[in-house]
UniProtKB/TrEMBL annotation:
Origin organism lineage: Bacteria, Candidatus Kaiseribacteriota
Location (main, coarse): membrane
Domain of life: Bacteria
Localization: Membrane
Keyword ATP-binding carried by entry: no
PANTHER family: INNER MEMBRANE PROTEIN YRBG, SODIUM/POTASSIUM/CALCIUM EXCHANGER
Bilayer-spanning residue ranges: 6-28, 40-64, 76-94, 106-125, 131-149, 184-205, 211-232, 244-268, 274-295, 307-325
UniProt-recorded name of the protein: Sodium/calcium exchanger membrane region domain-containing protein
Sodium/calcium exchanger membrane region domain: residues covered: 8-148, 184-322
Any one biological process term the GO annotation gives: intracellular calcium ion homeostasis
This protein's GO CC annotations: plasma membrane
Length: 326
């Protein structure tokens, strides 16, 4: 009976994470239009930052519960999906059958993304991700943000702003801004509650099936929290706005791998016990980061062939992880 209960809790909280994440994303998108925010801010910060909120709340909740390994698995799983399934979904739904990477700033961001994905793996070489490592990860995030803000003039495109020509229009847009702000606050509040349910049910599954929390984070929590990236890639591809896909995915890797893992490590250092499946998972993460970077920077596009390779890599990762953990 407990298994059914916690299974329902996990699925319900995963659905709540997705729906509340959508509230936050849509609310922030509309607010960005009211404020006339440039495209790169939405793509790199608003979308990626909002989509990373589930990872953040799962990370903080698990760290405070003394099980930060769950957050590590969540971030590793999320990054793998962002660099494989999420970008592949965008390619398969793109009108031109590929995603171009023509901006120099975006290509340079790919290097930051690859470094961000690889750095936690290297820092775990001594068997733990300590507080000093957390400071280093957060420092990399702040350095990237500072660099990116100096590149804003390279992005000339703006979203269509909501221009106000009368007091009536001003009041209308003010009401919409208040409504969207309430939606964002409510969505964040629900995210906190859902994250607690995810952590509690994941802990039960790990104990019930005698599985490591890292495995639960890698295969289940990571997949659930990566759904916003997959959804956004498909939606953007259908609209023909593939430039947003790359911006969102870069941010979706950098934010969890640096800022979130850094915060978790500061709250509760992460220790690993030489788990065989984790060693293999780190290799797959390194391979995904390398392939994604090579495809995006050398060919300056990701087409069906590249998407197929990345999808196969994720399938191989799942098979390896399950076999190694059994």
């Amino acid at each position: 009976m407990e298994l059914i209960f916690y299974g329902a809790v996990f699925l319900g909280c995963a659905l709540i994470l997705y729906v509340s994440g959508e509230w936050v994303v849509h609310g922030l998108m509309r607010l960005s239009r009211v404020l006339h925010v440039r495209e790169f801010v939405v793509a790199f910060f608003v979308m990626a930052g909002a989509a990373s909120l589930p990872n953040l709340f799962v990370g903080i909740t698990s760290a405070m519960a003394g099980i930060p390994e769950l957050s590590l698995g969540d971030v590793f799983g999320n990054n793998l999906i962002a660099m494989t399934l999420a970008v592949s979904a965008g390619v398969f739904f793109a009108r031109r059958g590929s995603i171009g990477v023509h901006s120099k700033t975006v290509r340079t961001s790919m290097l930051f993304m690859a470094v961000s994905a690889v750095l936690p793996v290297l820092l775990l070489a001594d068997g733990q991700l300590g507080r000093v490592d957390g400071v280093l990860l957060i420092g990399l995030f702040l350095f990237y943000v500072r660099w990116l803000l100096t590149q804003h003039e390279r992005f000339s495109k703006k979203y269509d702003g909501l221009h106000v020509h009368s007091q009536k229009e001003f009041l209308k847009h003010a009401r919409l801004a208040v409504k969207d702000t309430v939606k964002v606050v409510a969505g964040v509040s629900i995210l906190v509650i859902a994250a607690y349910g995810i952590v509690s049910s994941a802990s039960f599954f790990a104990e019930y099936f005698e599985l490591p929390l890292l495995l639960i984070g890698l295969l289940i929590v990571g997949l659930g929290n990566a759904l916003p990236e997959v959804y956004f890639s498909i939606a953007s591809a259908r609209r023909g706005d593939t430039a947003l896909i790359m911006g969102n995915l870069v941010g979706a890797v950098i934010v969890p791998a640096t800022l979130i893992l850094g915060i978790v490590a500061l709250i509760s250092p992460i220790h690993i016990d030489g788990l065989k499946f984790l060693t293999g998972s780190r290799m797959f993460l390194l391979a995904a980061a390398a392939l994604f970077f090579i495809f995006a920077t050398t060919r300056r596009r990701i087409g069906h062939f590249e998407a197929g390779v990345l999808t196969f890599l994720y399938i191989a990762f799942v098979v390896w992880t399950v076999l190694a953990a059994s």
